[in-house]
Amino acid sequence: MKKIFTITIGILLIYLVYYLQKPYITSKVNPISEINPLILVNNNNALPDNINLNLVTFQKNKVADIIYNDLVAMYNAALNDNITLKINNAYRSKDEQTQMFEDKMNAYENDGYTKEKAYEQTTLTVQVPGHSEHETGLAIDFSNEGHYDENEKMWKWLQEHAYKYGFILRYPKDKYEITKIDYEPWHYRYVGKKAAKEIMDKNITLEEYLGGNI
Ligand SMILES: [Zn+2]
Q: Strand, helix or coil at 144?
């Protein structure tokens, strides 16, 4: 009888430990992509077509393999602080970006905009195909369940810690004149740890880090 009791308690304890343990990610990849983590993709700089990009899956999204291990480390560190980094968007192919752009533009045209005006209006919120960082596999839009206030725990955590894992807040507040994109607390871009630290320390953008090549 005593033995059965001990076994039952033992099994219960094993279940308890199992359920309390946080779902850390332990997988790793060996990157083979030949994309420079400092590549500049913006309004004036298109992503070259011939880049050898190897994509891997993270939370059902695709990302460039060179960011995977650091992304996992960041995910686990956030989890340790009771924050679950969910992803809204990561890699988009040029075709997907084109589709997104055309859908938005069509919607404006259906609303009565001229083709020219619809194009102009679309570029305010959707990057022209070939010019979206999401096509590099180096950019991630995190999801905070629809909460965008900068005081939200997730955005605060990312702003404080992301650089340690090689990620930067790509479109900071008050940098529109340089990035030409409004503040996006959710959009993080992998640039590698060294650059991320310098960009963070100096409070600059990737454009400024690369020497004003905008
Ligand atoms: Zn984004």
A: coil
Q: Which CATH architecture has domain 24-92+132-209?
A: 2-Layer Sandwich (3.30)
Among 126, 123, 143, which Cα is nearest to 188's? Answer: 143
Q: Is 133 a catalytic residue?
A: no
Identify which of 24, 19, 3, 12 has the alpha carbon closest to the alpha carbon of residue 77. Answer: 24
Ramachandran category for residue 24: left, alpha or beta (phi over 0 → left; psi -120 to 50 → alpha): beta
Task: Please count the other Cβ atoms lying within 10 Å of the Cβ belonging to residue 97.
Answer: 20
Catalytic one among 96, 109, 152, 184?
184
Ligand 1 center from residue 41 Cα (angstroms): 12
Would you say residue 25 has pLDDT above 50?
Answer: yes
Identify the three-state secondary structure at position 72: helix
How much distance in Å is there from the Cα of 10 to the middle of ligand 1?
A: 48
Question: pLDDT tens across 67-116, in order?
Answer: 999 999 999 999 999 999 999 999 999 999 999 999 999 999 999 999 99
- Give the Cα separation of 200 and 117 in Å (integer): 37
Sequence ranges of the domains in the chain: 24-92+132-209
User: How much distance in Å is there from the Cα of 111 to the middle of ligand 1?
Assistant: 26
89 CA → ligand 1 middle, Å: 7
